[in-house]
What does this fold into?
Amino acid sequence: MRTVLEVDGLFDGTTTLSDAAIVVEGGEITWVGKRSRAPKTPKGQRSRTLEAGGRFVVPGMVNCHAHLTLDGGADFTAETAQSDALAALKAFKNARAALRAGVTTVRDLGANGPMVIELGRAIERGVLEGPRIIAAGRGITNTGGHGTEVGRIADGPDEVRRATREQIAAGCGVIKFFSTGGVLGEGAGPDLAQYTLEETRAAVEEAHKAGIRITTHAHGAEGMRIAAEAGIDSIEHCTLLDQRTIRLIKERDVALVPTFSALHAILGHEDVLPEQVRERARSVASKHHEGVRAAHKAGVRIAAGTDAGTPFNRHEAYALELRYLHETGLSREEALVAATSRAADVVGRPSAGRIAAGAAADLVFVSGDPTRDLDVLLAPKAVWVRGAPVSTPEAPA
It folds into this structure.
């Protein structure tokens, strides 16, 4: 079936177009352009023309950083100790919530087992409805380090290589590394660099040898520099950037995923979180926007991710991250790029995050123009994935 979708305007991942049409066939976009120039349906082929529920369309958005097995409860340590069965059920529920919010590709960066890898496989086989999933399996951390709740402990280059190979053998689509301590959990604090250059290089080499990307959790500047020097593909959180670190990141063309949503959610609920979490969050939040603003001015690539699943940070609230990016200094168009085509490139899925011939027919229809008001993305009117509509609170499939 050939479907022609007509809209008043669209953002294709880089630029806008008014009075537009999109031709979809077999889950793929085959043509996009001015409505008046839409190609005619070939003889003998079935076709339909639709107004898809919103007057403006953007590519399906990409969340570069989520934890689908976590709901965002206040007690992070207790939630990470849940059973594998419960974690799998939550992963499916949260994947659906993200999809209905317009997130058609999710990079899951750490679960206490292979359940999200398996969920992604089931969705691709058509067993379940959900977004495209790139899952890390277990993250790699060191003894006493941050991330032990959802991580595989590895010390020394040889053990790091083995841990990386284990995740690859389990079917991961990305390697998650922990270069520094963090805010949540009982492990090391955010300033501490957890791994040496040699250890980090071991993980990077194994990931790239297998043809997959590797990203790292990093707050402190030293840990970020070690990761960049080792050839890491992207850095998550990047809260304590300084000029020296920004220069190296720019030189090595490392992408940043600031995850502003995580700290905003924690600082908005300090009264119910442990004192250590509050102190650590405050210590990094004061420099977060300033550092990312400086990196943006320096021309560093920035992509959108939320760290959804951390306390009070919901999977369906992805679009808030675009607001925070805009408040940091990105234009609305740049924030949209960070959530679509740039994010797709960072996670290694060039057919996602774009409205173009040959791209996946993953689309989000909204009531207004997000290049003027990003908040229209908070309430999609319709969402399509793989060329078909999904059920949303606004638009049952």
